[in-house]
Amino acid sequence: MSIQVNVAEAKAKLSELIARAEAGEEVVIARGGKPVVTLATPDRLKPKRRKRMLGVWAHLGLDIPASAFDPDPETLARMEEHWNPEVRDRERAARGESAPLDSPYADLADARRKVRDGC
Fold first, then answer.
1. What gap in Å lies between CA 2 and CA 21, rounded to an integer?
2. Which domains can be identified in the chain, with CATH numbers?
3. Which run of H or E residues covers position 3?
4. pTM reported for the whole predicted model
5. What is the pLDDT along the chain (119 residues), one digit of tens a residue?
6. What DSSP assignment string belongs to 58-74?
């Protein structure tokens, strides 16, 4: 059921109109006979969501297994070796580079030394 009231009447009977809207009735407030506002409970105002399709190529219907996004074991091993200080120091020693300093600018200092020494 729907009820339409003008603004002046809505001001006077706002509590009653809110109660009717909470009861499930559609309450429309009009100005000059034209609907301006509808009173509704928050659950009625929530937009209905469509199920989202993930991926930019979802419309193509490609079936990509989740395992395709697993990290590559070889790449992980190389990264671990690169960031492991013991392995990194061993590789530097094999290349004939000096041992790294504790400074975050150790590579920069190493490069300056090479330029200075003409290497």
1. 10
2. 2-42 (3.40.1620.10), 71-106 (no CATH)
3. strand 2-6
4. 0.40
5. 789 999 999 999 999 999 999 998 999 999 999 999 999 888 877 777 777 666 777 777 777 788 888 888 888 887 877 777 777 777 777 888 776 555 555 666 677 777 777 76
6. GGGT----GGGGSPPHH
